[in-house]
Amino acid sequence: VETTLSIIKPNAVAKNVVGKICDRFEQAGLQIVAARMLHLSREQATAFYAEHQGKGFFEELVGFMTSGPAMVMVLKGEDAIARNREIMGATNPAEAAPGTLRADFADSFTENAVHGSDAPATAEREIGFFFPEGIC
Ligand code: ATP
Ligand code: MG
């Protein structure tokens, strides 16, 4: 059983689809074991996306991620990391398969509705980043 970090990004929160997105996770057998709304600061967004610093889309990404509240969650289940990324669909919504979260809720490449950790080491870092107190 794995855990992974999920973020419902500000565009999806603004569109009132938090419930629909959580339902997709639960229907797929991923359990929400931690969750919190937060409005990311510039410092938090920059640190969270440090690997992308210097790329052409970085400023747009930080601007978007700090534009309004997001929901950060920990999902738990069998193969949670890969399963979550399957449910999300491709990063570029133009390439996201029908029925995936990004196909249904993205507004652009940057405003692509959700984030999900991409590997076990990343999941551990990202869960610790938002839930340093641990999860129950
Ligand atoms: P995430 O980390 O959000 O789950 P990902 O791992 O699929 O997405 P990354 O390559 O880590 O994708 O990029 C992080 C985020 O930066 C993307 O989700 C998207 O919001 C934005 N992004 C990435 N590449 C581009 C791009 N070429 N143009 C615009 N925005 C981009
Ligand atoms: Mg990523």
UniProtKB/TrEMBL annotation:
Gene Ontology CC annotation, any one: cytoplasm
Compartments where found: Cytoplasm
Domain (Nucleoside diphosphate kinase-like) ranges: 1-136
Enzyme type, top EC level: transferase
CDD domains according to UniProt: NDPk_I
Main location: cytoplasm
Documented EC number(s): 2.7.4.6
PROSITE patterns reported for this sequence: NDPK, NDPK_LIKE
Record's keyword annotation contains Lyase: no
Pfam families linked: NDK
Role according to the record: Major role in the synthesis of nucleoside triphosphates other than ATP. The ATP gamma phosphate is transferred to the NDP beta phosphate via a ping-pong mechanism, using a phosphorylated active-site intermediate.
Name of the protein in question: Nucleoside diphosphate kinase
Annotated organism of origin: Thiohalocapsa marina
